[in-house]
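Internal tracking record. Fields below are filled automatically when a chain is submitted to the structure queue. Please do not edit lines marked as system-generated. If the sequence contains nonstandard residues, flag them in the REMARKS field before resubmitting.
Queue: standard
Priority: normal
Entity type: single polypeptide chain
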Amino acid sequence: MEEQPIIVKRVKKVSGGHHGGAWKVAFADFATAMMAFFMVLWLTMTATPEEKQAISGYFKDPVGYMDAASRNPIDLGGSASVVDSTSEDVADSQIKLEDQTIEDMADTLEQKQMQQLFQDLKDQIESSETLQKFKDQLLIDITDEGLRIQIVDRSKRPMFDSGSARLKYYSQDILFELAKPLSEVNNKLSITGHTDATPFVGRPGYTNWELSADRANTARRALVAGGVRPEQIGKVVGLSDSVLFDKDHPQAPVNRRIAIIVLNKKAEQEIQSDSGANAQPVIDLTAPTEEQSQEAQKKLESGDWFKQPPEPDAGEVNW
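SYSTEM-GENERATED OUTPUT FOLLOWS
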């Protein structure tokens, strides 16, 4: 039997050498970070509220820091630099608008408000049972003066008693319903009375001018009773038949109407400018002359001022 050869394996052992210093670098970074962390804690504990606010402003908006101040929130001396933080939403320069541009913007805004009021009135008419019955007598449009509401007469359905300024009961209900949305606006109101071309012959000296003015004033009282503020009324005018609705038929019932206008700012200013407060009188009627003062003094002393004026002759008109 053959003998098997013996094979011997020899393993050469190598002792571990130097593993490098990478751990030392990591430890040094960790120690530096801890030192910086404790420095931040120490500075935070010793800083005043103003300094803390400045530091917070720096980290929120470093670019907004003033050029004259230090870029570092903390000086080398150990104190925080107080710097006003600037919001990026604040514009560097103010926007300047011309007066004409401002007026145009105001007119556009007011026009939108008038359109909204126009829609609110239409909704009021549709939702109100009272106004729904008389919607054919209500005319609404927008003019140069503002939003105009006209209440016109229809055949066999007048607003007032014939030849009178007394409202029909349903006309009063219409004005009460319209007073609700009108009382919610800040604009002033203009109320105008109109008649047809038929001459008024009810009594001497009383014409369509007086009748239209009385009817406009009656409408004013009804609107105030319905909720419109008295100071909201800007103008009450009677125009008789000078502004006909149907010029081809001067005696048509539609010409008898009441017009209520929600005045825009321009129309309000025109009313105020018509007061004539800045006009220069040719003769100052407010201050009596010296002769008038002396004459009044004589009458006061003699008692002539107490004499009754003579009675007018029969048929003579004494205003």
